[in-house]
Design goal:
Strand content: 15-25%
Distance between the termini: 29 Å
CATH class of the largest domain: Alpha Beta
Number of domains: 2
Number of strands: 14
Shape: globular
Helix content: 25-40%
CATH superfamily of the largest domain: CNF1/YfiH-like putative cysteine hydrolases
Order of helices and strands: EEHEEHEEEEHHEEHHEEHEHE
Strand order of the largest sheet: 4-5-8-7-9-13
Structural class: alpha+beta
Length: about 270
């Protein structure tokens, strides 16, 4: 029997938050079997079937599942009722080049796609608004979490102390080996490298280097949330490394770019 396997997060009454695992869908090969992302090369019919499965399991209309085309930037898009009155072409253009989406409309699932990058799901339990954030290393350097909280404050009156957040499956410190240029991008941007960077033996990339930097994107994004004023106790960590657990969650480093994506979503239940 088909049906998506979901990793869920308890962010409080009024919100449903989740990340999809690989099992329970229709896709094949490196997309097997639950891939709901249409931007990574999967068969479009399989993607539609998987989206239908997900929405049926969540009690949502498929038209209310929002999946942006991400570009590793820091653009935040607000989804309101007016969005659903637009043509399909306008909707697609609205979601192009977007790495975070937010809404205060019930039963609208905002989501982001990941396969090693860090997903962040945010719930303002006072003003009843939610956001989904795609925080790869480039978006993390751009402090996308801060941009989202600022956007939510402007749109809904969100205060960091009222926020519940979940940091979902992503690549871990142990697995996220990077070049010096990535380390420098974080250092130049003012991140606390002594807390989030370590040197480990190189994995044999042909560079001849004995050691390379590894970065902790989980900690970097947790620090950004806490730096904005989100209480530490209200940040949930999935603690699942996609690279080390690629049999359950998609990992682009393991499977290649042309492979499936985890869908990380959140919606207001009423």
């Amino acid at each position: 029997m088909r049906g998506p396997e979901l990793l869920t997060y308890d962010l409080g009454q009024g919100a449903c938050a989740f990340s999809t695992a690989r099992r329970g869908g229709y896709s094949e090969g490196a997309y097997a079997s639950f891939n709901a992302n249409a931007y990574c090369g999967d068969d479009e019919r399989m993607v539609r079937l998987n989206r239908d499965l997900l929405c049926e399991s969540l009690g949502l209309e498929t038209s209310r599942l929002i999946i942006p085309h991400q570009i590793h930037g820091a653009r935040v898009r607000r989804i309101d009722e007016a969005f659903f009155m637009q043509t399909d072409a306008v909707k697609a253009a609205t979601l192009e080049g977007v790495d975070a989406v937010m809404t205060d409309v019930p039963k609208v699932c905002v989501s982001v796609s990941t396969a090693d990058c860090i997903p962040i799901l945010i719930y303002d339990r006072v003003h009843h608004a939610v956001a989904a954030v795609h925080a790869g290393w480039r978006s993390t350097v751009l402090r996308i979490s801060e941009a989202v909280l600022q956007a939510m404050a402007g749109a809904y009156g969100t205060r960091p102390q009222d926020v519940e957040a979940a940091i979902g499956p992503g690549i871990s410190l142990e697995a996220f080996e990077v070049g010096d240029e990535v380390y420098e991008a974080f250092r130049t941007a003012g991140f606390p490298m002594e807390e989030m960077a370590r040197r480990y033996p190189a994995t044999g990339d042909g560079s001849g280097r004995m050691e390379k930097w590894h970065l902790d994107l989980w900690q970097a994004n947790r620090d950004l949330l806490e730096g904005c004023g989100v209480p530490s106790a209200r940040i949930r960590m999935a603690g699942v490394c996609t690279y080390l657990h690629s049999e359950r969650f998609f990992s682009a480093r393991r499977l290649g770019i042309r492979s499936g994506r985890i869908l990380n979503g959140i919606f207001l239940t009423d």
